[in-house]
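TL;DR need structure tokens for one chain.
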Amino acid sequence: GDAILVQWGFSFVTIIIVFSVSFEMGVEWIKEAVPEELQEVVSALLEELTTLGFLGFAFFLFTVPISNGESLIETASIYSLNEKEALKELFEGLHYLVFFVSLSFILCTIGGLATFQLTGNKQWSRFEKEGQAAFDNEELMEIKPDEANAMGGLLAEWKKPESVLQAEYLRMRCRFITESTEPALDPDFEYLHYLQKRVAETFSGMIKITPYDWLATWLLLALFFGIVQEGVTAEKMLALYWYILTMIIVMCLLLQCKLVWIKQQLIPRLPSEMQGPRRRPPKHSSPPTVVLAPVFMDQTTLGKPPFQVVDILPSFVPHSFVKLVKEYTKVRPGNKHERLFWFSAYGPEVMSHMIRLSMFWTIISLAMLLSHHMPGIVGLGEELTGYRFFGHVLFIVLAAAHLVAIETVYRNARYFTTVSSIEMLVDRELVEGVVREQKYAKCQKAIDMLFTMNFYMQQAKWLKEQAEAEGSMGAETQRSVAQFVPKNEEEAKTYEELRELFDHFDADASGELGTEEVGELLATLGTNLDDEELAKLIKIMDKDGSGEVSLDELASVMLSKKAMNSKDVKLSEVGKELFDMFDKDGGGEISLDEMTATFKQTGKNWDMEDVEAFFALIDLDGSGIVDEAEFMEFIKDVEAMSK
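>> reply
TL;DR here they are.
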């Protein structure tokens, strides 16, 4: 018997380890699969799973026997019901429910991310490809009146063709760019990247359940338990479950109706749509605008006064108390954009909470279905039809309804991101961050090219210095240099590592390497040289003129080169030398032809389009000429971005 217990104990430990490893591998897989913009969502999910894990641990503590051999929950059960197991079974059921809430959280979040990547993100990416062309081609933004869905109807939104969705996206993008002044944006601004970051913020916010959301959930559960405590029957539990599920689905659809209507109010109008008898352009008008203000801008500035708590207080309430309540409950009048939502200035925040609650309640409902209601629903289906198979079909239909609700929640999140990221709700700080990232991405090739040119310049100087030093040495001096002696412990360690590598390539154990073998050794160290560069280096290494390189000859050159490269090179410190390298005629200015010729002289297969783009970045005034001040200013900018 003891042996069997030990075997079972070992089996349980093995299962726990397998589950732990599987979970960690799953987390790593999700992190790799999810784009960088959505990594914030994964972090938020793990934080919430930690909270749910703590709840599971708390449940465990309540079931651990204490000094009298009974757990806290068993003691409470005996005290209140005179029955030891009653509350324990209920508590274990709640523990079981928490586990399924965690599982549903994971599945729903992964499903939501996958849905966004496969539908919304791909769709936006297709639209973004026409972004710059839309500024010159109004036809890309035209929408037929019968497809416009001006009233914001839900069915009409679902039936919209992709061409209309693209036109709406391009209109919003054009207005976003043209209306932005701080910072001013170029037509190639990565609007898609901005939306992706806002989606990540929205999705991660949905997963982070706030105290207000827990309070609303507690009130819903209090209502639920208040109803069932008068008589718990299977029929009543299933009926309440149906009511809650129906309420969640209706809530999701109502939110989507509101968000679709808001989106329609925010879609900019084209000048061609405004040409009517009531809207004639002025005689001295400014240059034509790509898109005009959306419909919501036509409303009055202040609108109706927002709801105030003091408005419902009776007249006999003391004035001092009314003043105190007014001070602490005063609601700021919302701007035109905020008033499109419910609750005036608090509209976007309240809408965010409602989307979060719809997701959280859907997850709880799904967890209840999986953990408690499956037998009852299968039994109900069998009772209604006489076949157990239809009971399972009913269960699958209910589970599918939850998946539809989750898909609706994430669609609502996408709509909410769109309508809360433009016009008067633009996240200026995030826009500036995207502009910085975009500028850095544009300059990245230029940064790499500058560092590469600096490497060639330093290498050429070093080869020249080595050649001059060799020419000034006598025969005895050269022989002494060939005998390498490490100067410190670090050089001695590097020398030994180099010896091992040298012996590996010295296949015939001759103690010397040929040109081809030296090239392979250097490539292993990460230094790739062409035939001409390698020949120059071999000439410097080969102090005794044997045509081959010994370990000491190799070490003498490589370690001195390493010492030179170990110094932190700042482009600003060598900027003048780089400018002089490009300025072939010494006229104090660089032309595109001079820069192109310099890059070609390095012997590398440079992409001349990259060189031209590099020159255009430096030539800010578009004059075709770059002076030293412009060049050094650009060097400082790219150096700051590369930190």
